[in-house]
Each structure stands twice: as C-alpha cells, then as structure tokens.
Design a protein that fits this description.
single chain; about 375 residues; mainly alpha; disordered N terminus
Length: about 375
C-alpha cells in the first residue's frame, strides 16, 4: 500500500474519534448492565470507571471529552497546515476558524436548552460543544499566527498562568488557595460574568474561565498532529509512534507530580488534568496510529469510522431522536422471551445497533455535518 500524502485524512484519527464517541453514545451502558446483572468484579470496576469523580480525581470517563478536543487539535495541521502551504493567507482561514467556533457554541446552546423552549434567565450557555468550539478556535488561532517555539510558550504559559491564578487569586469570603466547588476563582468569576444559570448553580464544569487551560489541550493535539504530518523522509511512521509514546508517558509523569500541588480535576480543567488527559490521549493516538496507519489493520475500523465521521451528529442526535423507543419497538418483543440478564444486555446492544444503523445510513449517503 502506498504511503498517504501528508494532507490526506488519517483513518486512525477518524477511528479513534469514533471509538471515543462510542462510549458516550451507549457503549458505557454495556459495563453498567454487566455489573448489575452478573456482579462480576471486573465489570463493577469498569462500570465505576465510566462514572465521574465527585470533584478531584480521574477515571476513564473523564478522558472522553478532552480526547475529542485533543483530536480537533490533531486534525488542525492537516486541515489548516496544508492550506497555508498552498498560499492561502491566515487572514482568510481565520474566518472559517472563528465561524466554526461560534457555530459549536450555538449548537451547544440548542443542545442544552432547545429552540425557544427555555426562558432566557434559565438558559445554560456553557456546554461541551462550546468548550470544544472556543478552546479549539483559540488553539487554531495560535497555530495560524505563531511558530512552533511560540506555540510551546503559549502552552506552558496557559498551564502555569492558570495554576498561579487558581492558587493565588483571593475569592471574597474564602481567601486564596481553596479549590473546592464553593471556593475557587474560576467558579467565582463565572458566576459574575456568565448569564443565565450555571450547571451546578454555583459552578459550571464548562465555564468560561476553565476554557483557558482547555486551549492547552487543543495545543497538545496540534503538537501531535504536526508530528504525524511530518514527512516520512524526516521521521518514519514507527519513530512517530515512539515519539508519541514518549510524549504521553512524560505528560503523565509531570501530571502525577503536579497533582500534589494542583489536583487533577476535570470540573476545573486544572493544569494537571490537562497533562493527565493529554497524556492518555497521546498514548491512544499512538496505539491507533500504529495499528491502523503503520500495520495497516483496517478492516475492523468501519464500525468506529461511521461514528467518527459524524461525531457532532452522534453527540447531538440522542437529544432529538428517541432511539430507545425505536430499539424497543424493533427488538423488545423478541428480547422479552429471553432470561432477564440476557434481555438487559440485549436492550443495550439493540439500542447501539439502531443508533449505529442510522449513522451508517448517513455515512453511506455521504451526509456529514461539517462545521
């Protein structure tokens, strides 16, 4: 098989994106049901991993969101870098970058509140899509207007600056250095500047202030994307995998040290969380790139590519289409004749099948939501 040109879409990236989104589109229920109906210790452990910690800490479920943002960064050198090399000015590309960011913010508002369904003062404006849109947008702006060294300075500045701000900014009535939900600078400022309601009343995990370190998550993806896009005459595919593995391990080691001073916390998107999630995301990218693009084992990828090519759709669609109802209408009668444990697992599989079939219909007809 001939080597792909540098600007071509990476199959491993689409596969990883689909793998990532699979777990929030029904996949996590597999372990929840297994744990409930079997009581197997490994299933209970996995089901626990697909929950979020109350505040500090890190579980597998915390990796899904930042990995998606990380992958948006990985695709940046392929999508924007190739155009820059063709002579398209950054001033022209930035219009598309800003447009995409604002559209994701708008889609996030619709996802949270519907269309003219919620009173203005009760609307929640922060969202997962807004975090991806804004953080990804600013990471891409940095990519367009700075060189490689400057991007690393931005990356370090965002992480260290956020750490200093969160540690030393005095919250009225609380003082400085407290990082509880009730007393932390990010939540305090978000309450003052964000209209409508916050997700947890006094705190929003996708607030504006914690979007700043999320830009660093996007930059980590950009660094990985620049490596993967480098010509094979300069760095071979196997060496790219080695570099990604090394970067991921270093990121995790630094994260563990920083955790003692600035706890790993997804709600606040702390600097240690950026390095922890980014480290695991880099290792996952190395694994998928090695299997798909180095070893060329590709036949198994279709299931995840169908999801990954329409990732925004799979995230939003469950809000507007009742897939559980469809799955029950199609398979509920048959499943009712099976023993309860098998029926419970069958319901999950039926839901995943129906949702995937819908996504495959879009994929087969080349219907993609491109933002």
């Amino acid at each position: 098989m001939k080597d792909s040109p540098p600007s071509q879409r990476l199959l491993s990236l689409d596969t990883l994106r689909g793998f990532d989104m699979f777990w929030i589109s029904g996949g996590e229920e597999i372990f929840a049901v297994l744990a409930k109906v079997t009581g197997w210790s490994w299933a209970i452990f996995m089901a626990h991993q697909f929950t979020h910690p109350d505040w500090n800490g890190f579980r597998a479920y915390d990796l899904i969101f930042p990995t998606f943002l990380f992958m948006a960064g990985v695709s940046t050198p392929f999508s924007l870098g190739s155009r820059l090399e063709k002579g398209v000015p950054a001033s022209e590309l930035i219009k598309k970058v800003i447009q995409r960011g604002l559209i994701l913010v708008f889609l996030g508002i619709i996802y949270n509140n519907g269309i003219f369904q919620t009173e203005w003062h009760n609307m929640r404006y922060p969202s997962v899509l807004a975090r991806i849109g804004l953080a990804g947008m600013f990471a891409q702006i940095i990519y367009l207007y700075t060189g490689k060294k400057a991007r690393w300075i931005w990356f370090a500045g965002l992480l260290i600056g956020y750490y200093l701000f969160m540690t030393f900014y005095p919250v009225p009535g609380c003082g400085a250095g407290l990082l509880t939900m009730e007393c932390n600078p990010a939540s305090y400022i978000d309450k003052m500047i964000i209209p409508g309601r916050l997700h947890l009343t006094i705190h929003d995990p996708e607030g504006l202030v914690s979007t700043l370190p999320a830009i660093a998550t996007g930059l980590m993806g950009i660094f990985a994307g620049e490596l993967l896009r480098t010509s094979e005459e300069v760095i071979s595919k196997n060496n790219k995998v080695v570099y990604l593995l090394f970067a991921g391990i270093v990121s995790l080691l630094v994260c563990l040290v920083w955790d003692y001073f600035f706890p790993i916390n997804k709600n606040l998107w702390t600097s240690s969380f950026v390095l922890c999630a980014g480290g695991f995301s880099t290792l996952l990218l190395a694994l998928f790139y090695w299997i798909v693009d180095v070893l060329n084992y590709r036949k198994w990828t279709l299931f995840f590519v169908v999801i990954g090519m329409n990732s925004i759709v799979i995230y939003m669609i469950g809000r507007f289409i009742d897939f559980p109802y469809t799955a029950d209408a199609l398979f509920g009668g048959i499943l009712s004749y099976l023993p309860h444990p098998v029926e419970a697992m069958g319901e999950v599989i039926a839901f995943i099948m129906v949702q995937w079939a819908f996504m495959y219909l879009l994929f087969r007809n080349k219907l993609f939501l491109k933002v």
